[in-house]
Design goal:
It contains 8 helices and 8 strands. The protein is an alpha/beta fold. The strands form 2 sheets. A 6-stranded mixed beta sheet has the order 1-6-5-2-3-4. Strands 7-8 form a two-stranded parallel ribbon. The longest helix has 15 residues.
Length: 195
């Protein structure tokens, strides 16, 4: 998995994220949690960029914020403790929170999606299994203000408004449902068919 640090598109991504006051507040609050391995990612980042590129308000259509972390303690109790900490810290944000320990996703994935998956070895590996290339993105910011970007498929599809399946784990029906919903909200998107 590629963790990108300094790239032109990476810098542009961070500039756009820093224009979104909700995300600025989220990253500031996240650094106060003192969780070493975390990312805020997926839809709230991708959709902020899509809104910017489409000339829309930056928070338009964004429903949730994915906060992911990686803790080898895969007990429900440990994850629940961190979920409660994040929820308490982020309680005033206008997005729904989706907080998950990526080290324990394999424990519940089959029950929710109907098929088993292997455990992820790292947080960055987990992001590499997210449903589309444009949403397989995570950002974190240290308390010193240093950004870390994880984008296993790069940022080209994101900035070209392309929705492309990451077939490593997603199913065709789930991809098509998600892509259709996004196309309805962001008509400028180009959806690459599954085949």
């Amino acid at each position: 998995m590629v963790v990108m640090n300094e790239t032109n598109l990476g810098n542009r991504l961070i500039q756009i994220v820093e224009m979104n006051p909700v995300l600025v507040r989220a990253f500031k609050q996240a650094s106060a949690l003192q969780i070493d391995r975390y990312y805020i990612g997926a839809g709230c980042i991708t959709q902020t960029v899509w809104n910017y590129l489409c000339g829309r308000p930056l928070n338009d259509g964004i429903k949730d914020l994915d906060f992911v972390f990686f803790d080898e303690d895969v007990s429900y109790e440990k994850e629940d403790m961190i979920i409660r900490r994040v929820t308490e810290t982020f309680g005033d944000l206008p997005y729904q929170l989706d907080v998950k320990n990526q080290a324990r996703v394999h424990l519940w994935y089959e029950k929710r999606f109907g098929y088993p998956i292997q455990p992820y070895g790292t947080l960055e590996e987990a992001i590499g299994f997210w449903p589309t290339t444009a949403t397989s993105i995570g950002l974190s910011r240290s308390s010193e203000g240093e950004w870390k970007l994880c984008a296993p498929f790069g940022l080209d599809d994101l900035f070209a408004l392309i929705v492309r399946a990451n077939k490593a784990q997603i199913t065709k029906p789930y991809y098509e449902q998600k892509a259709a919903r996004w196309k309805g909200k962001w008509p400028a998107l180009t959806v690459i068919p599954w085949e």
